[in-house]
Design brief:
- Helix 2 packs parallel to helix 3, helix 6 crosses helix 7 and helix 6 crosses helix 8.
- The chain has eight helices and twelve strands.
- The chain is of the alpha/beta class and 232 residues long.
- The strands form three sheets. A five-stranded parallel sheet has the order 2-1-3-4-5, sandwiched between helices.
- The chain starts with a strand and ends in a 5-residue tail after the last strand.
- The longest helix has 14 residues.
- It has two domains: 120 residues, Response regulator (Rossmann fold), CATH 3.40.50; 97 residues, Arc Repressor Mutant, subunit A (Orthogonal Bundle), CATH 1.10.10.10.
Length: 232
Amino acid sequence: MAKRRVLVVEDDAAIRRGLVDALRFGGYEPLGASTGAAGLDLALHATFDLALLDVVLPGVSGLEILRAIRAARPTTPVIMLTARGDENDRVQGLSSGADDYVVKPFSVRELLARLEAVLRRSPERPSDIGRMAIGAIEVDFDERVITRPDETRETLTEMEAGVLRYLAQNSARVVARDELLSRVWGVDPKAVETRTVDMCVARLREKLRDATPDELIRTVRGVGYRFIEPRP
């Protein structure tokens, strides 16, 4: 069985060597970079199963690399490394799409446990959706068009298509409003009213009204929304 490859982007040479050694000890194949620019290049062009990104890097930051990974390969797991353990670092990383974070200094045991936990979850991530049937209608996410059984078509806005696709991709769980603001709108949830999400979902429900008699987008009070797969 091939070893899983882990991209390590860390500018501190001693810490990077420690990470590489820990990964080799844990049965992984490490791929290292010492600068943000080198890390970004590997993130976009190399093959790897998980990325370990230091938050603070010379040139391109770890958060910038994270956003590039999310845009290019949205299902690849990412763990952020931070020396400060600062809450803002953690919140910003998680809201930008990181799967977990590790605060330096950390033990090899903790690091490997977090890697294994994230990799166990990653196969559950669904791949991107280009087109899907929802009950009696078909949704083309690339064209942002709903086609009804009578062949009439209705256009979705960019945000409506983004919300529906994200909820469908994550149908196994409830998705928080803040997560939708961060991942679909690409904004800081603190800077935008969550009512924006509620209004978008209301419009989606109206456009999907003929899809199926079942509830498609369920409200979870105080948390967010969950996409309910239509029954056959």
